[in-house]
């Protein structure tokens, strides 16, 4: 289901298929609502739980959306994020991430950034595709551990933003993607702040940027 082509050419991208929310479903309506409020330009308002909606469902829809956004953003810079340019998964000199998923890889392993992000995105996709964790059918309840699963997913997705900002921002600027990246990250941060989904310590690699983005909206 996840095909990765690894060669020296431009096409050596690891594409993760976009996770689609079924049209006509309630989650699809929620996604449309999220897109409409985003269009208003007020991100603080756009992330708030719509009246009468289920918190788990709102978090699920947005988590899928962030996965798709980050997948796309990272896809634009994969040719610059290689085994040789990024031999470790880092967010600046002070933060290094080692991969473990608790099932296949129990003990954290040190690996290159492209390998880490490949593990991470594949792991997230498996969670999103698991109907017992992310039910797409109406009336199917979310599991009791849903919130902790969502928090782990978002914490890990943050690391991809952190890596892009610290190691590849010059490439992002050359590709004229910085406005897109900043808007996506700002939306992500306002969302996790609104529902307290990522521990402040985990956000440390991008703390200055987070404060800057927040101050513009006060």
TrEMBL record:
InterPro entries: MOB_kinase_act_fam, MOB_kinase_act_sf
Record's keyword terms, sorted: Kinase, Metal-binding, Transferase, Zinc
Pfam family, one: Mob1_phocein
Gene Ontology MF term list: kinase activity
Location of the region described as Disordered in the Swiss-Prot/TrEMBL record: 1-22
Domain of life: Eukaryota
Bias (Low complexity): 1-12
Residues bound to Zn(2+): 81, 86, 163, 168
PANTHER family: MPS ONE BINDER KINASE ACTIVATOR-LIKE MOB (PTHR22599)
Protein name in UniProt: MOB1A kinase
Organism: Mionectes macconnelli (McConnell's flycatcher)
